[in-house]
Amino acid sequence: MEAPLSHEAEEYIETIYKLQKRNGIAKTKDLAQAMHIVPGSITNTIQHLESHSLVYHEPYRGVKLTREGEKIALEIIRKHRLAECLLTDVLKAEWSSVHEDACKLEHALTPNVTDLLDEKLGHPKFCPHGNPIPTKNGVVEEQCCIALTEANMGETYLVAGILNEGHASLEQLAEAKIKPEAEVNVVKLGGDEVVLVVEGNECCLNRSLAANVLLKKTGGTSHATKTQR
After folding, report:
1. Most CB within 10 Å of its CB: which of 33, 105, 110, 159?
2. Which residues make beta-bridge pairs with 141?
3. Are 166 and 209 within 8 A, CB to CB?
4. How far apart are the C-alpha atoms of 23 and 155, rounded to whole Å?
5. Can you say whether the dihedral through the CA atoms of 15, 17, 19, 25 is positive or negative?
6. CATH top-level class of 7-65
7. Per-domain residue ranges of the chain
């Protein structure tokens, strides 16, 4: 591209990537909800990204990133998640409160500073919320996970990651002691409420919040994927 992307465009690309990863495509209504804007305001930015061959639109379905768009998305996510690690590991900020600050920091990190930060932090593989940090070459180490709402009752799991990194959601989960590597056991799963035991303490979550918690079996495996360049 001839000019750097605006911060707004970067946020769009990052959000589209996450929705595409989860649902196969980013629907307009889901994109608007994730970015806390009205659907009608999305059109111009999507057209701008499409004109630069970063996304393509599938009529009546939504948008998906092109290969170049996905490459940029991984670079943005890498910066964001390393910024979160900086805030928690070095500055000792609470893991549940760093997402919004990292959103601001990510836009200021140059590729050189990002590499230096990665080295300083010891090349972390996951952010404080358990989500994978892409490498410089676009490799993402994915864990084999299921949503909490898909867990088997009576089986013990470890929290692998949290999809919704908004402050309100993370505060609720932190209050319930639900964070990466915490041990959980589902007691009741049905209706609008999930009852589980977290590190020996029983708690309740609404189903929509529980769906954002990823679990892995104890001793679970991971695999690496790489973006096509």
Report:
1. 159
2. 224
3. no
4. 26
5. positive
6. mainly alpha
7. 7-65, 146-217
Comparing C-alpha atoms, which of 167, 7, 174, 162 is closest to residue 101? 167
Q: What count of other Cβ atoms lies within 10 Å of the Cβ of residue 222?
A: 14
Please say whether the beta carbons of 159 and 181 come within 8 A: yes
Domain 146-217 maps to which CATH number in 3.50.30.10, 3.40.50.1000, 3.40.50.300, 2.30.30.90?
Answer: 2.30.30.90
Three-state SS string over the chain comes to: CCCCCCHHHHHHHHHHHHHHHHHCCECHHHHHHHHCCCHHHCHHHHHHHHHCCCEEEECCCEEEECHHHHHHHHHHHHHHHHHHHHHHHHCCCCHHHCHHHHHHHHHHCCHHHHHHHHHHCCCCCECCCCCECCCCCCEEEEECCEEHHHCCCCCEEEEEEECCCCHHHHHHHHHCCCCCCCEEEEEEEECCEEEEEECCEEEEEEHHHHCCEEEEECCCCEEEEECCC
Evaluate whether 106 touches 99 at the Cβ level (below 8 Å). no
Instruction: Yes or no: say if 148 and 183 are a contact pair by the CB < 8 Å rule.
Output: no
> Tokens 């970063």, residue?
54
Q: Write down the pTM of the prediction.
A: 0.87
Work out the number of other CB atoms within 10 angstroms of the CB of residue 59: 5
Tell me the mean pLDDT per 10 residues along the chain, length 229: 78 95 92 87 90 91 95 96 97 93 93 97 96 94 91 92 89 94 91 90 93 85 54
End-to-end CA distance of the chain: 16
